[in-house]
Amino acid sequence: MAEPLLRIENLVRRFGGIVATDNLSLDIAKGELHAIIGPNGAGKTTLISQLIGQLCPTAGTIRFAGQDVTHLPAWKRSHLGLARSFQITSLLPNFTAADNVALAAQARDGHSFRFFGNARKEKSLRATALAALERVGLAGRADVAVSQLSHGEQRELELAVALATQPQLLLLDEPMAGLGATESARMVKLLADLRKEVTIVLVEHDMNAVFALADRITVLVYGRVIASDVPAVIRGNEEVKRAYLGDQHVVTSHG
Ligand SMILES: Nc1ncnc2c1ncn2[C@@H]1O[C@H](COP(=O)(O)OP(=O)(O)OP(=O)(O)O)[C@@H](O)[C@H]1O
User: Which of 11, 13, 14, 15, when mutated, tests ligand 1's pocket best, judged by the most ligand atoms within 8 Å of its CB?
Assistant: First the structure.
């Protein structure tokens, strides 16, 4: 059988006495949308940070696209096709939407930000930026400054920034956070479209979104995988209900 796109084996991350990732093993197949859920402090963000290369594991291995990337710096993983969209807005507020995406595309091409003045005028970067904006429904907002975009639009722009690096695997950390009902519905639709093109690992507290989108769901508690399966099985899992889903009645409303 072909190796999965991402293979995490026996991953451990300690912060002093806290074991934030506790001997975690997980495979992500190419083409799937894999959600990671769990209570606050379960270690979801710590896991994503190790996958992208912003945090070193204490032990264990991470293989991506057939290569051991455990000790590769973040920029090299980005070149291999791993991209993260941030929980905390990392956009440049005084630059336009298109400029923010062009910067990401330029960084992927290996150029320094110092040359951005030229890059701004460069046609191919602008074209890449517009294509990414189109994919997230922001083509009409290309020349608007980030500070003038709504919160929902900024979230969409973060996705466009990640897409501009042409990822094979997109790691999304709470893309629905802070969105209202209409904006959340837009984001779900957008992710439903994107998943056709790119493998996605989605960390999310919005269970309506998770159960509407995921092919498989992994549940973390205290840094451990307590269940990893298709949504219907996760929904019926007693341990998961006790640990996390019990008080999230919304989860029963989606099929
Ligand atoms: N830099 C750090 N230093 C010390 N402890 C940390 C650090 N980062 C995370 N932790 C601890 O590791 C554990 C996992 O935290 P993490 O933020 O990964 O959880 P999470 O599942 O993403 O939570 P949330 O759903 O609230 O975002 C927590 O106990 C947290 O306090």
Answer: 15
Tell me the per-residue pLDDT of 67-108, one tens digit each, with 9 for 90 and over.
999 999 988 898 899 988 865 557 899 999 999 999 888 876
Question: Whose CA is closest to atom 8 on ligand 1?
Answer: 46
Residue 115: DSSP 8-state: G
ipTM: 0.97
- Is the CB–ligand 1 distance for residue 62 below 6 Å? no
Ligand 1 centre and the CA of 12: distance in Å?
13
Q: Count CA atoms within 13 Å of residue 166 on its CB side.
A: 10
Question: pLDDT tens, 116-154?
Answer: 555 556 778 899 999 999 999 999 999 999 999 998 999
By residue count, the chain amounts to: 255
Cβ–Cβ < 8 Å for 41, 243: no
Decide: 218 in ligand 1 pocket, CB within 6 A: no
Torsion sign (Cα): 79, 29, 51, 83: positive
User: Is the beta carbon of 15 within 6 A of some atom in ligand 1?
Assistant: yes
- For the chain, which domains are there? 1-81+168-254 (3.40.50.300), 90-166 (no CATH)
How many angstroms does the Cα of residue 15 sit away from the middle of ligand 1?
9
145-190 residue pLDDT tens: 999 999 899 999 999 998 988 899 999 999 998 899 999 999 999 9
Query: How many whole angstroms separate alpha carbon 80 and alpha carbon 76?
Result: 6
d(CA 27, CA 14): 21
* 113 in contact with ligand 1, CB cutoff 6 A: no
96 φ, ψ (degrees, to nearest 5): -75, 165
